[in-house]
Design a protein that fits this description.
The complex is a heterotrimer of chains A (about 400), B (about 290) and C (about 300). Chain A has 12 helices and 15 strands. Chain A is α/β, with parallel strands linked by helices. In chain A, the strands form 2 sheets. In chain A, strands 7, 8, 9, 10, 11, 12, 13, 14 and 15 form a 9-stranded mixed β-sheet that branches. In chain B, strand 1 and strand 2 form a beta hairpin. Helices cover about 75% and strands about 5% of the residues of chain B. Chain B is mainly alpha-helical. By secondary structure, chain C is mainly α. In chain C, helix 4 runs antiparallel to helix 9 and helix 10 crosses helix 11. The chains are: A alpha/beta (about 400), B mainly alpha (about 290), C mainly alpha (about 300). Chains B and C meet through helix 4, helix 10 and helix 12 of B and helix 5, helix 10 and helix 12 of C.
Chain lengths: ~400, ~290, ~300
Amino acid sequence: MRQKFSSKRRQWLTGVAAVATAASLRRLAWAADPLKIGLILPLTGPFASTGRQVEAACRLYVARNGDMVAGRKVELTVKDDTGAPEVTKRIAQELVVQDHVNILAGFGLTPLALATAPVATEAKVPMIIMAAATSIIPTRSPFIVRSGFSLPQVTAPIAEWALKNNNRRVVTLVTDYAPGLDAEKTFVKRFSDGGGTVLESLRTPLQGPDYAPFLQRTKDAKPDALFVFVPSGQGTAVMKQFAERELAAAGIKMISTGDLVDDDILDAIGSPALGIVSSFHYSAAHPSPENKAYVDAFMKANGGMRPNFMSVGGYDGMHLIYEAVKKTNGDVDGEKLVSAMKGMTWTSPRGPMSIDPATRDVIQTVYMRKVELRDGHYWNIEFDKIDNVKDPSV
Amino acid sequence: MIGNLIGVLFDGVAYGSLLFIISIGLSVTMGLMNFVNLAHGAFAMLGGYVCVVLMTRLGVPFLASLPIAFAAAALAGALLERTLYRRLYRATHLDQVLFSIGLVFMSMAGATYVFGSQQQPVQLPALLRGQVRVFGLDLGAYRLFLIAIVITVTLALNWLIEHTRFGAAIRASVDNQQASAGLGINVDRVFSLTFALGSGLAGLGGGLGIDVLGLDPTFPLKYMVYFLLVVAVGGAGTIKGPLLAAVLLGVFDVAGKYYAPQIGSFIIYVVMVIMMLVFPRGLVGRRA
Amino acid sequence: MEIAFWLLPVAAYFIFPRYLTLGSQIFIAGLFALSLDLILGYARIISLGHAAFFGVGAYTAGLLAKHGWGEPISGLAAAAAAAAAVGLLTSVLVVRGQDLTRLMVTLGIGLMLYEVANRASSITGGVDGLSGVEMNRLFGVFAFGLNGKTSYWYCLAVLFIVFCFARTLVRSPFGLSLRGIREGERRMPAIGVSVHRKLIAIYTIGAGIAGIAGALLAQTTQFVGIDSLGFPRSAELMIMLVLGGAGYLYGALVGAATFMLLQDYLSNLSAVYWQFWLGLLLVLLVLFARGGLIGGTLGLRRRLIGKRT
């Protein structure tokens, strides 16, 4: 029976074995450690919708672009930030020290990002800010790169638009907390520099807000427009009160940044939002082929949920990571990855965008939109834009 | 300027009357059963969500959904009182506080699970939208409606307390539980019905308040301090006290925010401190 | 028995070298719960705003460090003093009233301080928080680093020292008079005890200790968030204390540790329903296990020993 193992067969078997070994060796050489990304997001609590949108977008990116980058397998670890800065910092520490993640990403709230910055610096791990929108965040660590937006970046354009359209007298109404004050400062500066008059700068308390007295004061001041900035979720209350007090009938327009008319809740708000003009970096109705494909894929993968501005922060953050790793040929050294990200330019579902090499912040187009009813749904329809907007305060 | 003042007063009274209708149940519970129920806001929230569900999923008009909200909250109150609250009447205030906070957390988590964490919109009937011209002033139609409802409810409550046997039973039990039991009053039943009534009123207030106070799962905690304030300043166990306190609170809050928006939010805390120093037992104090 | 308890964290350092930061945060929570136990467990003052003192301490230590004074121990002392001062000021209102008044006043003060911290955002950073807190080396030797070793021992040591102080306090005549007040407040003046002054004293001490806990958090995380003052923190604190059992001192530590560990474990499982289970736990605790973990254990032991004799 041994004679059946002829030399030819033996040769053939050896050949197969050799090829197999060579192939597996090659795979071993390239299939280095996986690319581990630690995604820290608000999965519970009042900002859970942010977490939901960003996570969905990140997973969509992996689904559409494959889970292999430069020979490494992408592993996403998603953790709840629980809303407390010390817990977020501890989670980031554990992700870096125990799970050996190569990149930290996500961050829905500014204090959580600020608290975690030292971890990125000390561990030399890139930290991608996908959601939090305060200007100073990228300055806190040389390893922070932003893929979302910053509030002053999207506020300045609405001030300019207001001036261009003959709104000379404006009242600003913001919630009295850091982001609100940032928005107020940016708007007032741009508006006044352009020759407009800010009649009053009203600030509503952070806790227990009742907008009635402030809107009444607005009505009494008789401005051309009212600029509003309130925390996400409060927008409905403001718009309702605005309609009830008949400020529109008194000739006062409502203008704001796009988070007031967040795509995630716009349909639920409904008619009180009609006609509101806002400035923002993303609308789900953006008429580009990339966006149409993105929105369709997103809705299909998430039971009809419409993607909002938070989701593109996540989607483009993943793009940043993938492209950077490709550029460094799989080298996950923190400093090299960040260098690779600086100056990167691409077309996102939101439009064209790039990363400022000096500040590691995002440069993008800001659009002017108006809420309109199309096909039975409410959308932010773009009608104007400003290209290459940088964060003005840095 | 006078026009502004009246407008501000009007808004303040409307806001205060809404607070009153939610808090009155807490006042009676505290006065009658000496039970610190921090979960009172949860019944208001329940009423609010019942209204929302009725309006959005079953197409019930707003005005019709209000009495149903009252009934739902009253039923929930009666049920919880029978099964859970009853066991803690003799417990320390601390235990009651902890228990009610536990209920609040459960209700908030439940609301988030079923409805999500965003604000609930409500479509008011056309009759109640916009503004109405009264003596040359523009007043909100909805707020007029609010004040009217609260006046009606207050009068009805007053009639109930002063002119019915049940009301007499409540008054007797508030004054002296043991003596009332000795006179043959079924104190247990009085407790249950009163708790149900108070919770029902809270639910009604919650439904009425969707437009003014907003409705989201954090409602019970967000407004807890206001309810406590109304009852502590007004005095637990009475109707007039909380009414006065609520209206004062509403007026000061609104006026503060209108005339001095910089410090407007601190006004109620200052009012609270002054009130507690001057009237430690409440404005119309009975049992604090 | 007590010595064995204190050897546990020492052992944990060697058994769980990767969870040192969690350990530090457990010690801080334990210290915070201890401060509330003095006020709530021993003096029966129901406070819904105890986090106010935690926050004051945290901001004091954080601001000192941010503006150049990074020495840890003196930062702690300053924080304790600041928090105690605020406690003293507000104690006047708190000790006067009945339970409902105390609830409302403490809640109101907590909310007011939160708003103040928000408004003074140029100093405190407002809702963005205070970052850039840089600490000097402890005793000039040990640096606060990413591995959490220094923080671990630092927090444990502070906890131990303050605990010994608290233990001495409650066994002293002062502590006994507190217990007397707890049992029968109206009778105390009859034996010459000034009720108000004792309550003010314990409230101030409790505030100061809470301030130390806050300062520890600021120093070990190099950050102060506005949530350190908020109501959720006060509510969670009460739950921790009740879980372990109020009035036993050790209950505060056991409750804090159990709560933090549970939270860490459960949030990895199912983050969304954490609040629901927490509420349910609280309801069940009050209905069936009034003494918390410690109280329940003691009761069980009593029953077992009783059965034997």
